[in-house]
Amino acid sequence: MLYFLLYPMRVDFAPLHVFKYITFRTLLAGLTALTLSLVLGPPLIRRLIALQVGQAIRSDGPKAHAVKAGTPTMGGTLIIFSFALATILLADLKDWYVWVALAVTLGHAGIGFLDDYAKVRRRNSAGIPGRTRLAAEFLIGGLAATAIYAWSEHGGHITMPFLKGVRPDLGLWYIPFGAFIVVGAANAVNLTDGLDGLAIGPVMIAGGTYAVFAYTAGHARIAEYLQIPYVAGAGELAVFCGALAAAGLGFLWFNTYPAQMFMGDVGSLALGSALGIVALITRQELVLALVGGVFLVEALSVIGQVASYKLRRKRIFRMAPIHHHFELLGWPEPQIIVRFWIVAVVCALLALSTLKLR
User: Which of 12, 41, 224, 225 has the most neighbouring CB atoms within 10 Å?
Assistant: First the structure.
């Protein structure tokens, strides 16, 4: 909105010309989102406590988590509001990619909100039925993938990491593929959100990484130099990603161990879907598995655990997702969190290397 009002300028005031630069607006969006989240966090916590919006702990979870029962949840609304407002203020709203990213994120936030509300109302960890939730997520992801397939100049092509010039065309199969990327990312982040600050750290790191991918994909000369697909307009998603990462940083102030509030499904589903849709738009879909390596391992640990128990009546881990396995091995919660963050940083650096190693 500010970009639209201030550039191109009706009045020739040179200092305001910086608004034409994506890098400046990304930085400003980050500062805006961070400030909003830090300022609005305390009153949100007080309001959630007053409304008795507390976290219900799974009966089959680690016994040490019992003390967390009643901690204010649905704090993800703080992240979503902060980074969405910062994006609307500082991104170019004539860029349709910005609206697609916001629509997917807010749509999943709505699903997560309903799920959290059901849990709070029933006072247990059972939200809306899983099939209903997945159907709604695939609907949103499918619509977004259809729009990208139909109106993006790259159609159904996907980019292969480390291989230049290899961009297989999936054709109409790109639509279910894209929907899977969005839904998979949303639920992988949701599964990771089990310890104080565990999910938001890798989300911030992934958001910052995709800010780089968005900027390079949207810059014709840089994209040509790096031999990656040039996606006109994708650069504006750097503002989106910068705001997301900074809003997450502000939330971490209140979510760090011991957490004052949890993000809930309203936050985890929305943030995961945001990473998924940005991966599709920037044509860095497969790299998401590397950028979000922590999320991928968490999701695979659950899939492997369930499959092993159904097929062999044996468990692979003491408990899934895998962060609970380390808890039951005796690792202190802060140790698990920080080590997972370190892994997320390494994954992000490896992902960024794909820009040059081709």
Answer: 41
